[in-house]
# Entry
Amino acid sequence: MDVSLILSNILNPPVLFFFLGMTAIFVKSDLEIPPPIPKLFSLYLLFAIGFKGGVELAKSGVNLEVGLTMLAAIVMACAVPVYTFFILRLKLDPYNAAAIAATYGSISAVTFITASSFLQQLGIDFDGYMVAALALMESPAIIVGLILVNLTAQRDGDREFAWSEVLQEAFLNGSVFLLVGSLLIGFLTGEHGWQILSPFTQDMFYGVLTFFLLDMGLVAAKRIKDLEKTGAFLISFAILIPIMNAAIGLLIARLINMPPGDALLFSVLCASASYIAVPAAMRLTVPEANPSLYISTALAVTFPFNIIVGIPLYLYGINLLWS
# Structure
């Protein structure tokens, strides 16, 4: 693999600020960001990428290429939790296995945005409708994870799943609702809407992303101690499964003839893990699972791995497969 790709990815201001946040924790700096601000930045990023995706979807229209991409996104979002669940069952009980499998079946919007920035830096085009794929992959893993728990765990007979709460958390939690809603509004308003909001949705975007990743660095470094509880099996899982998921994603992307830029974003979606929507749902619906396992592996291992090594590695795979 070309080392310059890794350096190009690392020497990106948002990524460097992620490391700055981690460094602040390691050197015991008192740097902190008040809790409401990262939440606001998270909402802004979801709104901005959803709106832009809707605008791009309006430009491209819904054709066979878009339809196949959306279908591939749904298939991977449903398949990843199933096979990772059975891998995790080798060492874990059904509750923790299902929670972690659901985490890795869903996606990380911040990893997706970092990959988009990486492509722009290299001058590689990608289609905006990939945001629609991101939105479609957010929720199915939650449903699949809960079905797996229902099928395999010996649960307390007096306790039943509240499926209405599960479905509400999967499809109507704030992140999914804002992302899908912004996508629809972008699609309906098209170029006219983009012209009105572009100073807010485009000019401010990377500044907000940079500050958000600074906060993610602080949070990830604080979670590193939790890795002592996960052991070598889960740490290895958190590195190897993203690579495997990305490889499967690339093969599917090649099969349906996605352009290289779209293929990278699709592989990153397959390789990333949720540390916001799915943990919130798992806390509510599978309280038997240990949050320190599924949050620390996704946030302290997989997320840094993907933004440092994973994204350039997946692009290297694309260069081999598409050449």
About this structure: The radius of gyration is 19 Å. The chain has a mean pLDDT of 84. Residues 101 and 182 are 28 Å apart (CA to CA). The chain has 15 helices and no strands.
